[in-house]
Design brief:
alpha/beta
Amino acid sequence: MDADVTESAGTPADPDRSAADQDGHNDESQDRDESQGEDRSRGDGSSADGPDGEGRPEEPLGSDVSARRRHRWLRWTALAASLFVLVAAGGGWWLYRKLDSNIRTDTSAAAELRVYEKERPVSVVHDAENILLIGSDSRTGDNRRYGRSYGSSQRSDTTILLHLAADRKSATAMSIPRDLMTEIPSCHQADGKPTRKQFAQFNWAFQFGGTACTVRTVERMTGIRIDHHMVVDFNGFKDMVDAVHGVEICLKEPIDDPDAHLKLRAGRQKLDGEEALGYVRARKSIGNGSDTDRMERQQRFLGALVNKMQSNGVLLNPTRLYPVLDAATKSLTTDPGLDSLKDLYELVRGMRNVPTKKVQFLTVPRQPYAVDPNRDELVQPEANKLFKRLREDNPVAVVPADELERKKGKNSDSAGSESPTPTPTYSGSNAATDLCEQ
């Protein structure tokens, strides 16, 4: 039985044969693994042999190197482009912050005006804006060379009420004489002490109570709500003229005015910032020596400056606009509503499409003060009619003084004839006026 069991279990394998069979199996497995390894190393899963069973030629080594170089070049180009964008953005942000930080905010005036809010006039026309521009005649610091100092105080040298129409199709700049006699309200001085209400020359308001007192004086005089104010110093004006590479004028006679630091030849010439400042401030050596003549000269020059900025594409050329903005923002002190570059940009953007002929300059109707001919007083009812037109955002027209006289003569000759009510016309100029055609 044991033999049967032994035979049913099978005969033991031949050791030599088993080893040979095992070796053959291992060799086939190794050959198969190597073949698969070759296929994997090709990376595309294809056989090393071509369709005809012939071996496929190997690709040159240089093609792989070229591909790697192209990939590297693309990566570096992308990186450089990214860096350029970041630098440009960073540079733009730095310039924006620089210009924005140039502007000074007059928080004390804003606080003072809030105290008297109930007595201030209300805005009549939505979207129309009235901005009071004050040229400071402080003689401190860099401005000391332009005249004597008033001690710790200062007076307004030039004051202009700029009215921007609600449709932004016109802008009217009305000058207020510094020697105009008017009612100045009680104002708080820098030390907090109140001044008394008094009848005095207009530019004393700035000396008594700064910008807030000047704003309140203008509002009482005109009934026009002042939405914003700006104070500009001498050096800012000079730098703006230099930034547009000067403004051209024509002189019938040469000027030699030591007080204004001005010496100019007759004829056509371009003024730089220093010369321009002397030109708009001179009194004794140009015209009849009056403040009225000086204001008209200032208006014409400001018009020429506006025209130069628009006609030369300054507002559309960043490389030329930046110096102008830098000069302007360095010279400005504004209320909180205009104390950022964004606010000023919105203001300028609203005016950029105003035709130069519609940027008008005039002076409030005035005449020599009866008590003192060296001072001025308002001419009524003409002054109140002008204030009402601006307050209600109604148009006004300006023409040169001699042309206005001729129009008045024609109107008197045709008195009694029926005609539509014409737009009130005042003596003045516009930004399109050529200073060499005066």
